[in-house]
């Protein structure tokens, strides 16, 4: 690829192969954007290095141990020494990505952030790589959320130039490209992972958070170059609403947000007439026919006035005050204030007030929603009443834009807790922004909800990408820990079996097995499995080693030992080298082993024996019989459970579906929300995550049973059912309770 620090060449073989050629009139503008990149990001990097030095020094000053302090000081020296190389390599990565995009065209699809793993094919995840990957992913998510408006405009303009749809993941200037470039430079450095996380966090604060400088200036350059100069930073507003997206990522998010259908025939077809009749029977009697009727458009206008007048009060109202909001009384007062004596509303408008009031009463009582989110959604009562009056299909059309927005916001709010915070870029801030825009802008154009739906769907999709990656990686780590624990137990069993019948072994053999060969066996078991030839050879070597240190009483045995020793030492050395065993320690052990072999050749029992009982595993999680202690078993006594009848709490724990949300009370009485993300088929260990995909709890099956038994965990049963469906069903149950029934929907 031909590129330099100043001018981008638009020639390249890949461009010809892909048949992508940038239009001639855009090339000067692209080079101008390249200059903005070269001017902006390196300057941000200078600030990052200056603040990083101070941050590392402060951490070293507060270090709790000498080794930790040394790690931070070592990182300071290394980052100072490597600064120029890091800056140059980072700039090179950015320019390569930028130039490749404009020479070869955008990638056909965004790169998958993590490889797909088959359920039965698991490879151990390195914790350090995991932590780095999560740090980078969090930076990308933060950048995309923080600079969403600028990125939207930039994506539209770049997409216009290349005649393809571009998202932030494929944008050569997007947070993903910039953060990955930095990751590629930092990843090879021989630094402790905790130090790398500090570096990534500093990059996030000083570079990622300040990318508005890059995006703002680049958008200006593109606009001056005639690229969509009048583009609004708002998301596209659709002229009408239709069915939910049937495919693609956005469709998936919205399908999840809409949840499961409720099988109630009254929710099918025209629902509002059914509700109107049920409400009419409940009230009994009709409004006085001789009283003048207020026109629907006048009612909507009065509601708009109430919406604006009450906006500040509603925003600051407590949850209990929102529950006491009397729309009918407020509207009657507004009607009387217009003069002209007593008036009444159209029966359909009057019924809509009752239905919306009951719907929001349900929202305020819904346990699945956190109180802060209830208060947020309750502010939409007046706008939703206007929608219901303007368009009665609001109640019967599941894909109505206002209904879909309400459902998707309620679904997204389920896993949110106050601990998640209300900072910019988060779910609460996004929902609050949408609610305030509805209150401020909605008069009678229902198309506003289509626009907001698209924007909220895009936000959820960006969140989903990070959440799915984090959740997958957390599950992989948990599986890896479980696999590692089981493999260690297997190694200990194998060693115990071979030591059975021996009271003691020479000290050098004990050291070889404990310090080195145990890890050799573990590595082979994890990499090759127990059906591999390497595993069998490594176990056989233990037998050969033990035989070699037994006194040889006749000439035949001595000759056999002499022939065995070279191959034994070679195999030991090869295995220990595979785990990078300390060479000096290895030489020392081999000298001791040689002395031991000399004694055996003389028919003398080697001195300095170590009792077999003292050869315990490092973690102490395997007893002297080679079996894991029953009390430490993660499966909580699976065999006993099979023969015993399960009580209701055990049944609930065992049948809890993946994806189920729980509200859990911790030891301090604080509540948090957790989703069952993964369950081990081997031990029953359960992994719970928050709505960001981060682990909040990992416990054995019996721990989950105890959660239910003690009442600490409550299942949020209906969160997958759309809020509107739940509310309408609850509403009809209330109306049915009068004993007057309801007509079938036609």
Automatic annotation (TrEMBL):
Biased-composition ranges, Basic and acidic residues, are 638-653
State the coiled-coil residue ranges.
467-497
| Residue span of region Disordered | 611-653
Keyword tags: Coiled coil
Q: Which domain of life is it from?
A: Bacteria
Provide the protein name.
DUF1631 domain-containing protein
Please name the source species: Sedimenticola thiotaurini
Lineage, broadest ranks: Bacteria, Pseudomonadati, Pseudomonadota, Gammaproteobacteria, Chromatiales
